[in-house]
């Protein structure tokens, strides 16, 4: 058995819940929402990286002539990925999901099962707005579409599952 606690990305799943139009309060309310709509056949996902804006507050008496700054607003970033293009999903995304802030759940499992039957290791919940990139349609290969999710709320993470 490996001594590492690292995990494989195999089995990572991205769900959405179109009826969720605002973040629940308290944040633990995310865990009671039934996220049953899965984006099929995801090839890869890059989880969002959050950033904190920095406000320059340097003045003529800043210590030792160094610039000073203070933290400001946080930006939860964007999640991006690529999926095989499934015509029925693509149609749904284009007609009703793109451009609307709805609830999302990213599930990473430690057993590699691409649904809730796997052993959950990490769930990330957030409100997000989906954008689809240009679909790649090669004459001799699979058709895939890049996507991004702008995170519109403070993300909620879950690592304990019952």
Q: Largest sheet, if any?
A: 8 strands, antiparallel
Instruction: State the end-to-end CA separation.
Output: 25 Å
Q: Mean pLDDT across all residues, rounded?
A: 87
What structural category arises from helix and sheet content?
A: mainly beta
Can you tell me the overall shape? globular
Keywords:
eight-stranded antiparallel β-sheet, 162 residues, 40% strand
Describe this structure in words.
- The chain has 162 residues and is mostly beta strands.
- Helix content is 7%, strand content 40%.
- The strands form two sheets. Strands 1, 2, 3, 6, 7, 8, 9 and 10 form an eight-stranded antiparallel sheet that branches. Strands 4-5 form a two-stranded antiparallel sheet.
- It is globular, with a radius of gyration of 19 Å.
Can you describe this structure in just a few lines?
The protein is mainly beta and 162 residues long. Helix content is 7%, strand content 40%.
Give the SSE layout.
Elements (H helix, E strand, L loop, with lengths): L12 E5 L19 E2 L3 E5 L4 E6 L12 E7 L2 E7 L2 H11 L3 E9 L10 E13 L11 E8 L4 E3 L4
Antiparallel strand pairs: 1-2, 1-7, 3-6, 4-5, 6-9, 7-8, 8-9, 8-10
């Amino acid at each position: 058995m490996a001594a590492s606690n690292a995990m494989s990305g195999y089995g990572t799943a991205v769900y959405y819940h179109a009826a969720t139009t605002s973040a629940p309060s308290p944040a633990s309310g995310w865990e009671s929402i039934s996220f049953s709509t899965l984006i099929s056949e995801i090839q890869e996902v890059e989880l969002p990286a959050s950033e904190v804006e920095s406000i320059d507050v340097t003045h003529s008496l800043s210590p030792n002539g160094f610039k000073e700054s203070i933290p400001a607003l946080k930006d939860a970033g964007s999640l991006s990925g690529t999926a095989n293009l499934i015509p029925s999903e693509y149609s749904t995304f284009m007609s009703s999901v793109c451009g609307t802030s709805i609830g999302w759940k990213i599930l990473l499992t430690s057993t590699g099962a691409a649904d809730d039957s796997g052993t959950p290791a990490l769930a990330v919940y957030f409100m997000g707005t989906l954008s689809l990139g240009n679909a790649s349609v090669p004459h001799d290969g699979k058709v895939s579409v890049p996507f991004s999710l702008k995170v519109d709320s403070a993300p909620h993470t879950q690592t304990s599952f019952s």
